[in-house]
Amino acid sequence: MPKFAVLGLCLCATCWCGSTALFAADRPAHAESPNAHPRLGMNLTGPADWDTELPFVDVFHLSRPWTSQQKGGAWGKGPALDLDAHGWVKSLAPDCSAQTLLCTIAGGHYPSGRYTLLYDGKGVISIGGAAKVVAQPAPGRMILDVDSSKGAIFLSIAQTDPSDYIRNIHVIMPGFANTWQQQPFNPVFLHRWQGIACYRFMDWMCTNNSKVVTWDQRPKLNDATWMKQGIPLEMMIDLCNRQHIDPWFCMPCQADDRYIRSFAQMVKEKLDPSLKVYIEYSNEVWNGMFQQHKYAMDQAAARHLGRPDRPWEGACLFYTQRALQIFRIWQDVFGGHDRLVRVLAWQVGDHYWIDGLLLKNVKPGEVDALAIAPYLAMLVPPHSNDPNRPGADEVSKWSVDQLMAYMRNTVLPRVANGIRTNAQMARNHGLRLVAYEAGQHLVGIGGGENNPALTQLFFKANADPRMGELYTAYLNTWKQAGGDLLCNFTSVGSWSKWGCWGLLQYSDENEAASPKFMAVMRWAKSMGQNVNLP
């Protein structure tokens, strides 16, 4: 994820301040170094109505949560909706409706054609936007004609019977009306990521700012939308089983022990026993832009961890403490840790953080991997007097040639040095070095993102063939330094002023025309992964 927050000291993403060397006196006693197995993993894009990856043939799974509409009133200003435990509308106030949006994807980048709408209950559903009803062959079944060039699909519940309210809505893509229950995943999605070593489900689990505490609060298969709470665990397991890909789960920051144990039990019962399971506590607990950082600081203060005047250090100590507790629960459920990859993840930085805080109280054999996010980062503020960190007012005037030269000659060597430093620290502790996120990180910050010329420059750079060459050099640096699994961030997502994270922007994009996509997939192929190249 974008790294805009700092912890009260210079630890901006991949700046590597103070991390240029490890001195022998600072190193712990040498532990046995695990054999690195470099390969490509993938962070999947989070569930949303604007998700351009389209992983499911039932597009209603990623619908927007219901909006209450009052006849004649302002948008979304209707009275609070009467919802059941799964988010279905149980009843409507007079002159009110409940509306949702599906496929809010511009440019026609989702399939047009005949969609099948299915539902249980009694009432009236109205359709608008890019869709119109062309037939209603049976109760609870409608045939829609969708023209994706017209934008999003609007679906409204205009009336519903409180004794048998409308629920279990499904909107099935063309061609899957008879198979969606047996094969819920979009074949394009499955084919694209075949052979990937690991799916990191951080965004699928809506990990950042999660308020999930108990197992009962987990996402359910029959929830009205998976956008709000995340994708159900059953679906993540099903996906990994179908493709024989290892899962990487991020445990919610506030989850209680029963949640952790129940989650682990379902994984043990349902996941292919030949697959490994990566376990991480939350995501970027170091990052002040997320609520999990504040939660960790509060928990540290309550436990008197760290110095009161440096609460971010306490957050690191609490993070390790809670992660180790979580690992022990998983080990108890699995009867050992042979199938587990227990991951401690922190912001890339110097040995003070890794040795002095993160791993300070870790005993040999308690953790398997140290995870970092070694981004090819260029975070551009609006203005800068620092010649080593130019501002948007300067960078926006650069040509693509100038930008790519800067990335190759300045950013890549800095990142390569940081990878080597962190790889050595991991080896010193007998751990594998993995990347929980990786890739380019060209973005404006602190207002720099509001410079349109800068945004357009970054768009052009991400589509330039030299970006593919940069990725290849970057990935080879990871391999040469002894890096293990590297999870690219992210799979498919449209670009904006907030970043160009997706390897591809759209599900229907020409893969062969994307330098980033081709570079990472060719690298994966060179690592022996059975990926599909166009």
Topology readout:
Layout: E1 39-43, E2 67-70, E3 82-83, E4 89-91, E5 96-102, E6 113-120, E7 123-129, E8 131-138, E9 141-146, E10 153-160, E11 167-172, H1 187-193, E12 198-200, H2 233-243, E13 246-251, H3 257-270, E14 277-281, H4 291-303, H5 311-334, E15 340-345, H6 351-358, E16 369-372, E17 376-380, H7 392-395, H8 400-428, E18 432-435, E19 440-444, H9 452-462, H10 465-480, E20 485-488, H11 515-526
Parallel strand pairs: 1-12, 1-20, 12-13, 13-14, 14-15, 15-16, 16-18, 17-19
Antiparallel strand pairs: 2-5, 3-4, 5-10, 6-9, 6-11, 7-10, 8-9
Helix pairs in contact: 2-3, 3-5, 4-5, 8-10, 10-11
Short description:
By secondary structure, this protein is α/β, with parallel strands linked by helices. Helices cover about 30% and strands about 20% of the residues. It has 11 helices and 20 strands.
